[in-house]
Amino acid sequence: MTSREQPGPSPLRNLGGNEVQEAAFARYAGPYLAGRVSSRHRTAFDVLIPGGSVRVGMSGALRRLGRAPAVGDFVVLLDQPETGTRMIVDILPRRTVFSRGAPGEDGEAQVIAANIDTVFIVTAAGADFNLRRLERYLAVVHASGAEPVILINKADLADDPDALRARASAVAGGVPVLAVSALQGEGMIRLAEFLRPGSTVALIGSSGVGKSTLLNALLPDALQETSEVRAHDGKGRHTTSVRQLFVLPGGAMVIDNPGLREIQLHSAAAGIEETFADVIELACGCRYPDCRHEGEPGCAVRAAVEEGVLPGERLMSYLRLVREAEFQAEKTVIGLKRMEKKKWKGIGAEARRFRDKGEH
Ligand SMILES: Nc1nc2c(ncn2[C@@H]2O[C@H](COP(=O)(O)OP(=O)(O)O)[C@@H](O)[C@H]2O)c(=O)[nH]1
Ligand SMILES: [Mg+2]
Ligand SMILES: [Zn+2]
Questions:
Q1: E strand residue ranges, 67-219
Q2: CB-defined site of ligand 1, < 6 Å
């Protein structure tokens, strides 16, 4: 029986898949299951399938292609109970991608989370509240293809949450900004609009801002205890393996902290333009088209700062992120060159074995 003949809503839809991903899975006829990666371990993956979760590995073919599934990925499992085989054999097309800065041996940046529709950038009233950090997160999220939403948590601790909201809105360029209290429930009802059935939301932000508290507030009691699993890696060292993808009762999915703080800005160049649309707009008025706004004559951006139209810290923040993105892009090019050289030499079996071993 192929998946096309199955009645009712497809398993992929229930896990947040879209029609493109469904169509890609429909090409598989035979002993295949569709699932979604909920967490990634050293060599294994937890995959949500209709009615439960399984821990599986990936096929050698995928590994040799350097295509590692990430949290949030929709995957195809080969399922042959008679031989005890159940493993990931394919990754379905991704609609959004968060990747780590440096490309690997295969020249592709390492994907750390996929298929996220909306990102809640979580900050908190108090010491964490920092507009420059918000701008950095906005650039990364814009570049991924996901929609950002800024949550100012711990509103219960703020003297004037509306003032914080206004300050965040000033750098958010139209992105929604909500003040909430995960602990006391204030404003939480407004999150519903972003938690539609089938949509996937990720929570990012510094440690301690209340991401886990937010997630727990959205989850029914029964699910909360399973959020963290202690595991031993066999060498006596402790590792905490955290389940990352949760299905809410309403049908939305939430990914808690997909490690986005590790993301560098090399892939965020496009995101910077969206985040600093006001600076880009002003730059159209600079005398030189390649003006770097670092003191050139006729610079409309500097003029805007002098006239008090553009906050000086915002320009500094923009310049810092652009420099960082340029630096990362340069590193990427160097990485690619190195890879090219390797290709010329030919990647022998030895090198392949080394790579397979090194990849966790
Ligand atoms: N006052 C207040 N404390 C909060 C709120 N949300 C979380 N916290 C507290 O902040 C601390 C860190 O929360 P946690 O969810 O672990 O943060 P995470 O590191 O982002 O996952 C905990 O002590 C929470 O109880 C809130 O809305 N108001
Ligand atoms: Mg947490
Ligand atoms: Zn300029």
A1: 74-80, 85-91, 97-103, 109-114, 118-124, 147-153, 177-179, 200-204
A2: 153-154, 156-157, 181-183, 207-213
242 and 256 together in one domain: yes
Which residue has the CA at smallest separation from atom 10 of ligand 1?
Answer: 210
Name every residue whose Cβ is closer than 8 Å to that of residue 273 and which is 6 or more positions away in sequence.
280
Q: Determine what percent of the chain is predicted with pLDDT higher than 70.
A: 76
Full-model pTM? 0.76
* 160, two tokens: 């004037």
124 and 241, same structural domain?
yes
CA–centroid distance, residue 168 to ligand 1 (Å) = 20
State in Å: Cα 209 to ligand 2 middle: 8
Residue 108 lies in a domain: no
The count of domains in the chain is 3
Same domain, 255 and 123: yes
- The pLDDT of residue 232: 40
Cα 90 from Cα 67, distance rounded (Å): 9
Which pLDDT tens digit goes with each residue over 21-42? 999 999 999 999 999 999 988 8
Q: Which residues pair with 46 in a beta bridge?
A: 39, 55
Of 263, 298, 333, the one marking the end of a domain is 263
Q: If you measure from the C-alpha of residue 302 to the centroid of ligand 3, how many angstroms do you get, rounded to a whole number? A: 6
156: domain CATH number? 3.40.50.300
Ligand with smallest separation from the Cα of 296: 3
pLDDT bucket at 14, cuts 50 / 70 / 90: confident
48 and 78, same structural domain? yes
User: What per-residue confidence (pLDDT) applies to 289?
Assistant: 87
Between residues 165 and 272, the one the model is more confident about: 165
Range of the domain at 63: 3-93
Give the pairing type, strands 109-114 and 97-103: antiparallel
> Would you say residue 252 lies in a domain?
yes
Residue 226 is predicted with a pLDDT of 41
107 assigned to some structural domain: no
Which residue among 211, 213, 216 is best mutated to probe the pocket of ligand 1, counting the most ligand atoms within 8 A of its Cβ? 213
